[in-house]
Amino acid sequence: MAVLHAWRTARVTPLGELHTPPRMTAVLLRLTVQVVLVASLWHGLYANTGTTAGLDRDQAVTYAVLAVLASRLRELDQFAGRDTVLQHMHFGTIIYWYLRPLPPQRYYALRALGEQLYGLAWALGGYAVCLAAGVVEPPRSAAVAGVFALSMLLGQWVLYYVLLVLDQLCFWTVRNNAAMLILIFAQNLLSGVYAPLWFFPDWFVTVSAFLPFQATLSVPLSLYIGRIPLSDAAGQLALQAVWVVLLALFTRLLWRRAALRVMSQGG
């Protein structure tokens, strides 16, 4: 029974996509356009140069395209289904998270798991097409592929907690739409979604090293393209694991504090 409840919870947001074919078509079109534009951009940037910031053209294109595909892992349209924490706080429906037998933190985790599994199907499909078309390079060895997969798993775990912290901020703010957009932009910028971090100034890279954002995407993709050698992989994986533990403890504390701010009026 517990497994059945978990399955039903995990498929909440993906079902909203699967039951709306036009949204799936829009996702496919947007993803295709993004991949084509990003690949064209980096091919153009490397038209008159061989290596920049330690990357050659194929490495840069592979990194950029994989970053686009990885962004699909947590880009489901929760807003259309009124399934975001921000909307639940605005309409007062967040109280139902605390009235159900399933604890809110478990519901949130299961729902996020379903979203990531659904997004993984999109990312793997896009990766297979790009790999067959020669848009991205394959892993240089089986060891690189294994380390990349483990690092990506840890990175998505870190990303889950980062996004959870952003959602938990809604419990302490009244209207924070702009703040959420700024924080999401910062997450994408500091994690290397828009461009590899090596293209930024040294002070920017140094500051980002003390934040969890680059552990979400920059580290896994750097391992994939060989920017981080396998000899340094153990240290990077350990750092990712440390961020997972620290953020897990921090968000657990925030869940407890958030529960004290939720009130049920009229019974």
TrEMBL record:
Transmembrane segments: 117-136, 142-166, 178-197, 237-255
Domain of life: Bacteria
InterPro entries: ABC-2_transporter-like (IPR010390)
UniProt keyword list: Membrane, Transmembrane, Transmembrane helix
Protein name as it appears in the record: ABC-2 family transporter protein
